[in-house]
Backbone:
């Protein structure tokens, strides 16, 4: 929602996609009322097999051009791999990875025809290490990060800017609108959605690349390079056991 609000504020027309139709249309209406932009709302469950291609075909049939693709859909599960529902874990794989690959592949040809084009992939710091008790989630984010960084180099000659965003914990906005306070050792760990959006759009303007918001998140990613890879899962398991 933070991406949509900021892009609408900047005068960008939007295509919003979400599974739940009622809140989706309500949000689209809110954006239209507060900004002079066109907003198309498409209710669609992107975790359904083939959903990415279905969406791309709907956009093509409606002659809706896409200049900026923000792949922000995803969810995570915590728990032991053997105890979690395998169908739910496969749903996570489809949403976090398969839908993004399908959308990117199917929308790229049209994007290449336009002067300004970009892709923002929202990954996570979870993708920089194996995370026991979130094994599939961290694996999906590892895939997304490596896919996105490789794609950035492939598409550079064609003028497509790719931003790979790996935030840590996101500070939630309470329903009453008051900003959640983060103090002490947590102040550098949590970022607001607005901070992540601002960093992402600045990176888009500056040519793309990898973004890790938050000083402590950057330090954590760097520090892992100094620890033997086989040791990292043991350390993470002690901190993340449910």
Residues:
């Amino acid at each position: 929602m933070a991406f949509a609000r900021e892009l609408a504020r900047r005068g960008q027309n939007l295509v919003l996609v979400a599974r739940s139709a009622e809140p989706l249309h309500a949000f689209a209406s809110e954006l239209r009322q507060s900004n002079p932009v066109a907003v198309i709302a498409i209710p669609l469950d992107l975790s359904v097999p083939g959903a990415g291609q279905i969406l791309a075909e709907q956009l093509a049939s409606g002659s809706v051009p896409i200049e900026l693709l923000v792949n922000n859909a995803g969810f995570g599960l915590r728990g032991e791999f053997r105890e979690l529902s395998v169908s739910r874990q496969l749903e996570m794989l489809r949403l976090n990875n398969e839908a993004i690959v399908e959308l990117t592949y199917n929308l790229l040809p049209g994007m290449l025809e336009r002067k300004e084009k970009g892709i923002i992939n929202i990954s996570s710091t979870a993708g920089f290490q194996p995370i026991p008790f979130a094994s599939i989630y961290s694996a999906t984010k590892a895939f997304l990060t490596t896919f996105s960084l490789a794609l950035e180099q492939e598409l550079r000659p064609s003028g497509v800017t790719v931003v790979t965003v790996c935030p840590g914990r996101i500070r939630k906005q309470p329903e009453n609108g008051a900003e959640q306070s983060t103090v002490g050792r947590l102040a550098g760990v949590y970022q607001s959605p607005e901070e992540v959006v601002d960093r992402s759009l600045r990176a888009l303007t500056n040519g793309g690349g990898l973004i890790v918001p938050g000083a402590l998140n950057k330090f954590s990613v760097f520090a892992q390079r100094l620890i033997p890879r086989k040791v990292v899962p043991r350390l993470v398991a002690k901190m993340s056991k449910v």
